Amino acid sequence: MNREELEWCVSVPKVELHAHLNGSVRNSTLFELARVLGDKGVIVFSDVENVIMKDDRTLHEVFKLFDLIHILTTDHSTVTRITKEVIEDFAAENVVYLELRTTPKRNDSIGMSKRSYMDAVMEGLRAVSSVDVDYSPAGLKTNTFNGSTRKKMYVRFLLSIDRRESTEAAMETVKLALEMRDLGVVGIDLSGNPIVGNWYSYFPYLFMCFEGYNSIIILNFLGIRHRSTFLPALKFAKEKGLYITLHCGEVPNQEEIKAMIDFFPHRIGHACCFDEENWRKLKSAKIPVEICLTSNIRTETISSIDIHHFVDLYKAKHPLVLCTDDSGVFSTSLSREYNLASSSFGLGKTEMFQLAEIAINFIFADDGVKADLRATFKEAVKKLN
Ligand code: 6MZ
């Protein structure tokens, strides 16, 4: 990686729209947390160290890693700490608008509800000290101090529904998002292991009823388990005016991909494993795509960068935005993603700058924020030239 080019990518203002909180935790923080739990005998530090240091991991392995990260991070004070650090790391990268997504977690054993998890996130945001953060859609709430001349950054939140969750848990997340709109929650993300959970609701129990004497015996005929679906929660969120982004096509489930496009989310993430028909559908629907290059390569979702679908979408002028996905897990940064796009696809500085600026069109915020961001880019272009 050319150092000078990377520095240029850092200096460009950027918009980050696909970043998972727990995937963006610094390795140094994970090690520190692992050491504490190791000393308490909750985990074996060296096992954790090996897992964290592993470079390439399949998509399946990544989800095992997240389970481990959640053991390390999920108590209120740690959630606050990682939120502060992650936002400050993005600010240091010159990210001027960040949509940070996280899965609100309930853990009765430590008195954590989805709401208290999010309160801990908000506390982390308010603790950010390296930049002024605007996190309220009405522009009323900032952590600005009087007379501050610090850089300003917009932060908005997306609440993630994990595909493992029940319909009820997904609905609770949507209700929480509605409750927290004034605190900068703008939408819902569907994420998690793509082979878990179903898009459609269906009745998989094939059962036989034997009515005899005074009782009814129900036999589970084929042993197919009922799985709840997240669709009712997503529909409800959309009806209530929340923005929706879906992880779509991380695995080649064409039926689900088709249904997701028909749902017409405001954006989708990844779009890796589309067949020709769904690819055509996506392009004609013009749904913006959050592209995560390093993540796709590291998880082997895309076998090599030169066949990445970025090129096709870019040439077709399809709305797209470069993102990190999990900057901690994949040891990347948004500047590195821009640098990678530039070196892999031969984009010059003008194209890179335009790519960064055009992302403003796809943010889940109002026109006032968009106008302010456009002004920031206008100023930046003068300095960079
Ligand atoms: C799907 C992903 C993901 O929510 O605990 N997540 N879901 N595909 C991916 N591509 C690699 N990367 C991260 O952050 C971690 C959670 O984000 C989702 C997973 O559900 C993971 O557990 P939070 O802050």
From TrEMBL:
Record field: catalytic activity: N(6)-methyl-AMP + H2O + H(+) = IMP + methylamine
UniProt family annotation: Belongs to the metallo-dependent hydrolases superfamily. Adenosine and AMP deaminases family.
Tagged with keyword Membrane: no
Keyword field: Hydrolase, Metal-binding, Nucleotide metabolism, Zinc
Family matches, as Pfam families: A_deaminase
Cofactor (UniProt): Zn(2+)
InterPro entries per record: A_deaminase_dom, Ado/ade_deaminase, Metal_Hydrolase
Alphabetical GO biological process terms: adenosine catabolic process; inosine biosynthetic process; nucleotide metabolic process
GO terms, molecular function: adenosine deaminase activity; metal ion binding
Species of origin: Gossypium arboreum
Name of the protein this chain belongs to: Adenosine deaminase-like protein
Recorded superkingdom: Eukaryota
Span of domain Adenosine deaminase: 13-194, 229-375
